[in-house]
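We read letters as residues; the fold follows as C-alpha coordinates. A sample entry reads:
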Amino acid sequence: MESLFSAMVVLLLVSFSCFTSSEARYSNNGNITVKWDLMNWTPDGYVAVVTAYNYQKQRSVPGWTMSWRWTKKEVIWSTVGAQTTEQGDCSKFKFNIPHSCIRKPIVVDLLPGTPYNQQIANCCKSGILKPGVESSFQLAVGNAGTSSKTARMPVNFTFTAPKQQYICGPTKNVRPTRFITADKRRITRALMTWNITCVFHKAT
Protein backbone atom coordinates (compact mmCIF):
# COMPACT_ATOMS: atom_id res chain seq x y z
CA MET A 1 0.00 0.00 0.00
CA GLU A 2 2.85 2.39 0.78
CA SER A 3 4.36 1.87 -2.69
CA LEU A 4 0.96 2.37 -4.35
CA PHE A 5 0.37 5.59 -2.42
CA SER A 6 3.84 6.88 -3.33
CA ALA A 7 3.23 6.12 -7.00
CA MET A 8 -0.07 8.03 -6.92
CA VAL A 9 1.67 11.03 -5.37
CA VAL A 10 4.29 11.00 -8.11
CA LEU A 11 1.59 10.90 -10.79
CA LEU A 12 -0.06 13.98 -9.34
CA LEU A 13 3.26 15.78 -8.94
CA VAL A 14 4.41 15.19 -12.49
CA SER A 15 0.99 15.99 -13.94
CA PHE A 16 1.12 19.49 -12.40
CA SER A 17 4.77 20.27 -12.86
CA CYS A 18 7.17 21.34 -15.56
CA PHE A 19 10.78 20.56 -16.28
CA THR A 20 13.12 23.41 -15.42
CA SER A 21 16.64 22.06 -15.77
CA SER A 22 18.61 24.60 -17.78
CA GLU A 23 21.08 21.88 -18.74
CA ALA A 24 18.49 19.96 -20.75
CA ARG A 25 16.55 23.01 -21.90
CA TYR A 26 19.54 24.53 -23.67
CA SER A 27 21.38 21.39 -24.80
CA ASN A 28 19.82 21.65 -28.26
CA ASN A 29 22.65 19.88 -30.09
CA GLY A 30 20.54 17.49 -32.14
CA ASN A 31 20.20 14.77 -29.51
CA ILE A 32 17.71 12.75 -27.52
CA THR A 33 18.17 13.47 -23.81
CA VAL A 34 16.77 10.92 -21.35
CA LYS A 35 16.20 12.01 -17.75
CA TRP A 36 15.71 9.39 -15.06
CA ASP A 37 14.21 11.20 -12.05
CA LEU A 38 13.95 9.31 -8.76
CA MET A 39 10.85 10.77 -7.13
CA ASN A 40 10.57 8.79 -3.90
CA TRP A 41 11.92 5.74 -2.09
CA THR A 42 9.90 2.58 -1.48
CA PRO A 43 10.59 -0.28 0.98
CA ASP A 44 12.71 -2.15 -1.59
CA GLY A 45 13.60 0.47 -4.19
CA TYR A 46 12.23 3.63 -5.72
CA VAL A 47 9.70 5.21 -8.06
CA ALA A 48 11.21 6.96 -11.08
CA VAL A 49 9.85 9.06 -13.91
CA VAL A 50 11.78 8.59 -17.15
CA THR A 51 11.47 11.32 -19.77
CA ALA A 52 12.90 11.47 -23.29
CA TYR A 53 13.31 14.95 -24.81
CA ASN A 54 13.72 15.37 -28.56
CA TYR A 55 16.20 18.20 -29.11
CA GLN A 56 16.61 17.39 -32.79
CA LYS A 57 15.38 20.47 -34.65
CA GLN A 58 14.20 18.76 -37.80
CA ARG A 59 13.85 15.06 -37.01
CA SER A 60 10.83 13.31 -35.54
CA VAL A 61 11.11 9.94 -33.84
CA PRO A 62 8.49 7.62 -35.39
CA GLY A 63 8.03 5.32 -32.39
CA TRP A 64 10.78 4.99 -29.78
CA THR A 65 12.02 1.86 -28.05
CA MET A 66 14.23 2.17 -24.98
CA SER A 67 16.38 -0.39 -23.19
CA TRP A 68 19.07 -0.60 -20.51
CA ARG A 69 20.85 -3.12 -18.28
CA TRP A 70 20.36 -3.32 -14.54
CA THR A 71 23.55 -3.55 -12.48
CA LYS A 72 21.97 -5.39 -9.53
CA LYS A 73 19.00 -7.76 -9.44
CA GLU A 74 16.40 -5.07 -9.96
CA VAL A 75 12.87 -5.84 -11.09
CA ILE A 76 10.12 -3.56 -12.37
CA TRP A 77 7.10 -3.89 -10.11
CA SER A 78 4.86 -1.72 -12.23
CA THR A 79 4.80 0.80 -15.04
CA VAL A 80 2.56 3.74 -15.93
CA GLY A 81 2.53 5.21 -19.43
CA ALA A 82 4.68 2.47 -20.96
CA GLN A 83 5.27 -1.27 -20.80
CA THR A 84 8.06 -3.78 -21.26
CA THR A 85 7.85 -6.07 -24.26
CA GLU A 86 8.54 -9.17 -22.11
CA GLN A 87 7.96 -10.12 -18.49
CA GLY A 88 10.76 -12.67 -18.23
CA ASP A 89 11.13 -15.35 -15.55
CA CYS A 90 9.45 -14.15 -12.35
CA SER A 91 8.89 -17.66 -10.96
CA LYS A 92 10.78 -16.97 -7.72
CA PHE A 93 8.08 -14.48 -6.70
CA LYS A 94 5.17 -16.30 -5.04
CA PHE A 95 2.72 -13.50 -4.28
CA ASN A 96 3.25 -10.11 -5.89
CA ILE A 97 4.45 -10.74 -9.45
CA PRO A 98 6.63 -8.02 -11.03
CA HIS A 99 5.84 -6.45 -14.37
CA SER A 100 9.33 -7.42 -15.56
CA CYS A 101 12.18 -9.55 -14.20
CA ILE A 102 14.47 -9.20 -17.22
CA ARG A 103 17.95 -7.84 -16.59
CA LYS A 104 17.85 -5.87 -19.85
CA PRO A 105 14.21 -4.81 -20.29
CA ILE A 106 12.87 -3.29 -23.49
CA VAL A 107 10.30 -0.53 -22.95
CA VAL A 108 7.80 0.90 -25.42
CA ASP A 109 5.27 3.72 -25.19
CA LEU A 110 1.56 2.97 -24.84
CA LEU A 111 -1.03 3.76 -27.50
CA PRO A 112 -3.37 6.76 -27.66
CA GLY A 113 -6.62 5.92 -25.93
CA THR A 114 -4.94 4.08 -23.08
CA PRO A 115 -7.18 4.10 -19.97
CA TYR A 116 -6.60 7.22 -17.89
CA ASN A 117 -5.47 5.27 -14.81
CA GLN A 118 -2.61 3.81 -16.87
CA GLN A 119 -1.37 7.19 -18.10
CA ILE A 120 1.12 9.75 -16.92
CA ALA A 121 1.65 13.24 -18.33
CA ASN A 122 3.25 13.20 -21.82
CA CYS A 123 2.76 9.48 -22.42
CA CYS A 124 0.80 7.29 -24.74
CA LYS A 125 1.64 8.62 -28.21
CA SER A 126 2.74 5.31 -29.77
CA GLY A 127 6.31 6.46 -29.20
CA ILE A 128 6.04 9.33 -31.68
CA LEU A 129 8.36 12.10 -30.53
CA LYS A 130 8.30 15.30 -32.57
CA PRO A 131 11.03 17.98 -32.35
CA GLY A 132 10.82 19.90 -29.10
CA VAL A 133 8.44 17.38 -27.54
CA GLU A 134 8.91 15.02 -24.60
CA SER A 135 7.64 11.53 -23.75
CA SER A 136 7.42 10.17 -20.20
CA PHE A 137 6.66 7.02 -18.26
CA GLN A 138 6.88 5.89 -14.65
CA LEU A 139 8.57 2.84 -13.12
CA ALA A 140 8.35 1.31 -9.67
CA VAL A 141 11.69 -0.48 -9.26
CA GLY A 142 12.31 -3.18 -6.65
CA ASN A 143 15.31 -5.16 -5.39
CA ALA A 144 17.16 -1.88 -5.72
CA GLY A 145 18.91 0.61 -3.49
CA THR A 146 16.71 2.67 -1.17
CA SER A 147 18.93 5.72 -0.73
CA SER A 148 21.19 7.98 -2.75
CA LYS A 149 24.15 5.92 -1.55
CA THR A 150 22.79 2.51 -2.56
CA ALA A 151 20.70 3.15 -5.69
CA ARG A 152 22.63 2.18 -8.80
CA MET A 153 22.30 3.76 -12.22
CA PRO A 154 21.24 1.46 -15.06
CA VAL A 155 23.84 1.18 -17.83
CA ASN A 156 24.15 0.34 -21.53
CA PHE A 157 21.20 2.43 -22.64
CA THR A 158 19.82 2.04 -26.14
CA PHE A 159 17.31 4.27 -27.91
CA THR A 160 15.96 3.13 -31.26
CA ALA A 161 13.16 3.89 -33.68
CA PRO A 162 12.06 2.52 -37.06
CA LYS A 163 14.72 3.37 -39.65
CA GLN A 164 16.69 5.40 -37.08
CA GLN A 165 19.79 4.38 -35.16
CA TYR A 166 21.13 6.25 -32.13
CA ILE A 167 24.27 5.94 -30.04
CA CYS A 168 23.80 6.56 -26.31
CA GLY A 169 26.51 7.75 -23.96
CA PRO A 170 27.07 6.60 -20.37
CA THR A 171 24.56 7.24 -17.60
CA LYS A 172 25.56 10.31 -15.57
CA ASN A 173 24.52 11.49 -12.13
CA VAL A 174 23.49 15.15 -12.60
CA ARG A 175 21.87 17.92 -10.61
CA PRO A 176 18.36 16.82 -9.57
CA THR A 177 15.53 18.06 -11.75
CA ARG A 178 13.36 20.83 -10.29
CA PHE A 179 9.58 20.91 -10.65
CA ILE A 180 7.25 23.89 -10.34
CA THR A 181 3.69 23.34 -9.14
CA ALA A 182 0.78 24.49 -11.30
CA ASP A 183 0.20 27.61 -9.17
CA LYS A 184 3.93 28.47 -9.48
CA ARG A 185 4.17 28.99 -5.73
CA ARG A 186 6.31 25.98 -4.83
CA ILE A 187 9.40 24.29 -6.24
CA THR A 188 10.22 20.67 -5.51
CA ARG A 189 12.97 18.48 -6.86
CA ALA A 190 13.79 14.88 -7.64
CA LEU A 191 15.74 12.88 -5.06
CA MET A 192 18.30 11.99 -7.73
CA THR A 193 18.53 12.51 -11.48
CA TRP A 194 20.44 10.43 -14.00
CA ASN A 195 21.06 11.67 -17.52
CA ILE A 196 21.65 9.82 -20.78
CA THR A 197 22.37 11.54 -24.10
CA CYS A 198 21.67 9.67 -27.34
CA VAL A 199 22.93 11.05 -30.66
CA PHE A 200 21.49 10.19 -34.08
CA HIS A 201 23.88 7.89 -35.90
CA LYS A 202 22.27 7.03 -39.21
CA ALA A 203 19.11 6.08 -41.01
CA THR A 204 18.65 2.34 -41.51
Observations:
- Residues 2-15 form the longest helix (14 residues).
- Helices lie at 2-15, 22-25.
